[in-house]
Specification:
heterodimer, A: 446 residues, alpha/beta, 5-stranded parallel β-sheet, 24% helix, B: 3-stranded antiparallel β-sheet, two-stranded antiparallel sheet, 59% helix
Chain lengths: 446, 617
């Protein structure tokens, strides 16, 4: 059987690797972007000079041959799902028995005048990085549109080369659709401490052409003109599905898939950023363009093809990011605008760059989520508490088990408990220590 | 801020220039008075004076011409004394048969070690001119000004917001490294000239100078040419094509320094002149080249350690660890041995464990330690300070090292205590990203380091055999010959010239990763029976590769982290930088015994089953 995978990002490559683990099928991975898999999340580090491109490749180049994973550098122009055939730019073609679409996303553009000028771009692909690189020499200012994770990455990138940045955020606070108010305010402060020109409640109106087809300024909805040599468009991403038009594969915003990640066409699957679930799990979005879900989908689809049909189950939500120097981790159900039954304990360090938020159900006291800034928590421990719907007081008394900060770091669990005691009138005390042996015993139930 | 930094850089470069050139800032003259002061053995002194002829009282403009005049005289004196004592290799007579009444053989005859020592002290104290009268001025201009300049360059970083500061590491010609081919050219040049150098050492310097000089000129030329053609794109996103020419210059400088230090110390006597007052104050004797090395090593570790403390001031693990290596260098490697000598006890670095300390069981070391130093009695059992120190050395090597490695992993030694590790973590920090992460490098590493370990054990076994039986022959091997091979190939060339010299192109742990027999030994303990591991935080890894890039030991940390597997490698020195640079809080160094026999299982890997995907297996 010949399994063809379109896209060599984390979803496609995970699928390929697990298909190889589970079977002897012929595998071909097609990409128009790069010859080999690299970590998209590390693009920023190449620009900042922390890493070279080859350092972002998780596998050495011999890995693919050794594991009999065929790599093909081509752009798929058309898919014929009846004949089970792909057509490449340039006319060549390829047949498949099973097809996995893992073609990722593309940066959102909202019809801004000038959005296709030179010196305008998003940050998703290797080519986007090359584009940023090409306009960087001599750049006097960059304007970045969109207050999400990619926006702040792009801002950090320019900042690393001492290029001044104006950061336009539509909302009243950075990433306030996802982060609770206090955490969002913390990031605002941190962005400004780094010297970025952060403009909240500001939208892009148009990008000005310098006469040669290149961007020279951005105009905001407040009619401010910001002269700049580069405009970064980072207002989210959308599934990259334009090449599927006319293929008969059912799409909406993304490629529609059932719980086994099958599309409407026979033997065609879709995974990762481009997939849109018909029936997402309660509390989850139909499209989740993040690394971890891409990886889980890749693993699931491999299992589906090579073994028994298995439903995609992303488990308990988790994610992480880094806002300049502040790390962020989230486990479970943490919302920017919490529903009535969500009660939270929010502790923030006096220096304003670390915080711990623990969310629980007001009535049942069951633990619902953890939101952490500048503090690391242990995934498995948080997950076990969340899965077991542990009582928040039980969690608090053993909170040290979750602490994942490096040795000698100050621990703040006592302060969190103190805060809870103040709010609830209880007198809880820490009953566990941050010891690996205790953690192992807790996790293995011994 | 930029002005302060640039001024600091200028001061440092100026001081480095003064320091480097100062080895030539002297004229030399051999006088009878000098011989009187420097050579205590009467027969040697008289013979040298007799052989000196017109060299005596003649002024030489540089130390190079002086050494080339003095060296043959010392050799002739040795031959003449041998002759006079009746030694005649042609007739098979190897020992003195004709000595003056009551004079021992080596009071009369000159050994090769005597020649080296006389060459050094006669050159050192025959110096006149620019530097010798103003040694403290030059000490200030080089050591003090250089340190101050470096600190001026580092201190302004305190004004930045704390966090990971690796910006532009791969844009800098000092830290970006060179490509594989050039690295191999350099390495082969050193290896080949080392092997030949066993016969004729001057070749090392000559071959290296030619290779290095040619490459540097080539890169500067290419660098300028590229600028002119390609001014549209200032840099590419792809790999540097070996344009790290400041790094190459640093490699050449380091290698040159080590070769002078180990094999031609008589050319760097002016540096030791600068340090005489400090050496006298501490140990009570003038500075040898080893004192110079120890002092320089300590100063560099302090200054670059301050840089490290500033860079990682947001990370307490790094602060504690860096302070610890600096402390052990200052106290254990530098000051305590000097004080021991001052107090008439044997010289010993009390933290230096066998087999890194490969001379621990050499006959001369055992003789000076056992029964050496002040005698005293415990519970009616009489012993001496030297004996106790020697016993401590054995206990450290055979009990403390494996025990602590079981409890904490080898990091307790390699990145908390060890001097080699200390230099790597301070001076070497800007180069940590240059270690080779390929599978090939890992394979080579395992052969080489365990090869050195086997060599060290066999060599020590031979030496002990000879010590106990008084026989210097085992099978076809002369144990003294084996011992000197180890000293030259491993002790000098590998640990020094390659181990430190290659920092700027092969990363800062070349010696620790490929060569150190102690690291090899602890690695075996760490891999098979230790509580230590680096834990991966569930499924949080995004495969970005920062951990692997900044692993100085060339461990592909990411390959484990992205599978959710713990990292358990023999080579890991537990520096903790992978955990520090991880943008997602994925890695944690920790110890625990609860799962000691299952540390390597994929316990925490993402796992798929009929119940869906879970994190625990």
């Amino acid at each position: 059987m010949h399994i063809v995978i379109i896209g060599n990002g984390i979803s496609g490559i995970t699928a390929a690797r697990f298909i190889r683990k589970l079977s002897d099928h012929q595998i071909t991975v097609i990409s128009a972007e790069t010859d080999h898999f690299f970590s998209r999340t590390a693009l920023m580090y190449i620009y900042m000079g922390h890493m070279r491109f080859e350092d972002t490749k998780p596998y050495e180049d011999w890995f693919w041959d050794k594991n009999r994973i065929g790599l093909k550098r081509a752009y798929v122009r058309k898919i014929d799902v009846q004949e089970k055939r792909l057509e490449f730019d340039g006319g060549e073609g390829m047949s498949y028995d099973k097809l996995i679409l893992a073609c990722g996303s593309t940066p959102n553009k909202f019809g801004w005048p000038g959005q296709d000028l030179k010196g305008v771009g998003g940050l998703y692909s290797y080519q986007d990085l090359e584009n940023m690189e090409a306009y960087s020499p001599g750049l006097k200012r960059a304007v970045i549109v969109g207050g999400g994770l990619i926006g702040i990455e792009m801002a950090e990138m320019f900042h690393s080369r001492h290029i001044p940045v104006t950061f336009l955020v539509r909302e009243s606070s950075y990433w306030s659709g996802v982060l609770p108010a206090e955490e969002s305010a913390m990031v605002n402060r941190h962005i400004r401490a780094h010297g970025f020109d952060l403009r909240l409640q500001t939208e892009l109106k148009e990008i000005v052409d310098d006469g040669s087809g290149k961007a020279c300024a951005a105009i905001t909805n407040k009619e401010d003109r910001i002269d700049c040599g580069y405009v970064g468009l980072t207002a989210g991403v959308r599934p990259n599905i334009r090449f599927l038009e006319g293929s008969g594969i059912e799409t909406q915003r993304g490629i529609l898939v059932n719980n086994q990640l099958q599309t409407s066409a026979k033997d065609v699957y879709a995974i990762g950023d481009c997939a849109q679930l018909h029936e997402p799990m309660p509390g989850r979005r139909p499209i989740e363009a993040i690394w971890y879900t891409g990886r889980m989908m890749g693993e699931t689809v491999a299992h589906n093809i090579c073994k028994a049909p298995t439903d995609y189950d992303p488990g308990i939500w988790f994610n992480s990011a880094k806002f300049l120097d502040i790390e962020y981790q989230v486990y479970g159900d943490v919302r920017a605008k919490p529903p009535k039954n969500h009660q939270s304990i929010y502790w923030e360090h006096a220096d304003g760059t670390k915080s711990i938020r623990i969310i629980y159900d007001k009535d049942s006291k069951e633990i619902l989520g953890f939101n952490l800034m500048g503090v690391r928590y242990r995934h498995e421990v948080c997950e076990k508490w969340l899965r077991d719907r542990t009582n928040v007081e039980e969690v608090l008394q053993h909170l040290s088990l979750a602490n994942f900060d490096p040795e000698f770091f100050k621990q703040y669990e006592k302060e969190v408990i103190h805060l809870y005691n103040q709010q609830s009138g209880r007198e809880l005390k820490l009953r566990s220590k941050r010891r690996l042996n205790q953690v192992i015993r807790f996790l293995t139930g011994s | 801020m930029k002005t302060i930094k640039n001024t600091g850089l200028f001061l440092f470069v100026a001081a480095l220039l003064v320091f480097t050139l100062s080895i030539t800032f002297s004229r030399h003259q051999l006088t009878a008075e000098l011989l009187e002061n420097q050579i205590s053995k009467q027969y040697h002194r008289e013979m040298i004076q007799q052989q000196a002829g017109e060299v005596l009282n003649k002024e030489y403009a540089t130390n190079i011409t002086f050494v080339s005049a003095l060296e043959p005289i010392l050799q002739q004196s040795k031959d003449a004394l041998d002759n006079a004592s009746g030694v005649d290799p042609a007739q098979g007579v190897w020992n003195a048969v004709n000595l003056p009444e009551g004079v021992s053989e080596w009071e009369y005859r000159m050994s090769d070690a005597d020649i080296k020592s006389y060459l050094f002290s006669l050159t050192k104290y025959s110096a006149m001119g620019l530097l010798p009268g103003r040694a403290s001025l030059f000490f200030f201009l080089s050591f003090i000004l250089g340190s101050l300049g470096a600190l001026m360059y580092f201190l302004p970083d305190l004004l930045l917001i704390p966090g990971i500061k690796n910006n532009q590491i791969y844009d800098s010609t000092a830290t970006r490294g060179v490509n594989f081919q050039i690295r191999m050219v350099f390495l082969l040049a050193v290896v080949i000239s080392t092997i030949i150098g066993g016969i004729f050492k001057a070749l090392i310097l000559a071959i290296l100078t030619i290779v290095a000089g040619g490459l540097i000129i080539f890169f500067i030329y290419r660098h300028h040419k590229k600028k002119n053609i390609d001014n549209q794109k200032s840099r590419t996103v792809s790999a540097p094509k070996g344009s790290g020419w400041i790094g190459l210059a640093a490699v050449t400088y380091f290698i040159g320094f080590y070769i002078l230090l180990y094999f031609y110390p008589h050319y760097i006597t002016n540096w030791t002149l600068m340090l005489d007052p400090i050496s006298e104050a501490l140990g009570g004797s003038p500075a040898s080249q080893w004192f110079l090395y120890g002092f320089l090593y300590t100063v560099i570790m302090i200054v670059m350690g301050i840089r490290m403390l500033i860079k990682y001031r947001h990370n307490r693990y790094q602060l504690v660890r860096t302070s610890s290596v600096i402390f052990f260098q200052i106290a254990f490697a530098f000051l305590i041995p000097e004080f021991l000598v001052r107090l008439n006890q044997p010289y010993m670095d009390l933290k230096n464990a066998w087999p890194l300390n490969y001379s621990m069981f050499f006959d001369y070391n055992i003789d000076s330690m056992v029964g050496g130093g002040t005698p005293f009695a415990i519970a009616g059992w009489s012993t001496s300070v030297g004996t106790i120190m020697f016993v401590w050395g054995i206990v450290l090597s055979l009990v403390v090292v494996p025990l602590f490695t079981y409890i904490y992993g080898k990091r307790w030694y390699c990145s908390w205590v060890c001097g080699c590790g200390g230099l790597a973590e301070t001076l070497g920090d800007p180069y940590r990203q240059l270690s080779d992460k390929s599978l090939t490098a890992w394979k080579a590493e395992r052969y080489i380091i365990h090869g050195v370990l086997a060599f060290a054990i066999i060599m020590t076994g031979f030496v002990l055999y000879s010590y106990l039986t008084n026989s210097s022959q085992i099978l076809i091997f002369d144990t003294y010959q084996v011992r000197s091979w180890y000293g030259f190939f491993v002790g000098s060339m590998f640990a020094g010239v390659v181990g430190t010299g290659f920092y700027p192109i092969m990363g800062n742990r070349v010696w620790c990763r490929f060569g150190c027999p102690l690291a090899g030994l602890m690695g075996i303990v760490q891999r098979f029976k230790s509580r230590f591991r680096i834990t991966t935080n569930g499924g949080q890894c995004i495969s970005c590769g920062n951990c692997s890039t900044y692993c100085e030991m060339g461990i592909d940390v990411r390959s484990y982290a992205q599978k959710g597997q713990n990292i358990l490698r023999a080579s890991c020195v537990g520096c903790g930088i992978c955990a520090a640079v991880c943008p997602r809080g994925v890695l944690r160094l920790e110890n625990g015994s609860a799962d000691i026999d299952q540390r390597t299982t994929e316990l925490k890997a993402l796992h798929i089953s009929s119940d869906g995907i879970t994190i625990n297996a």
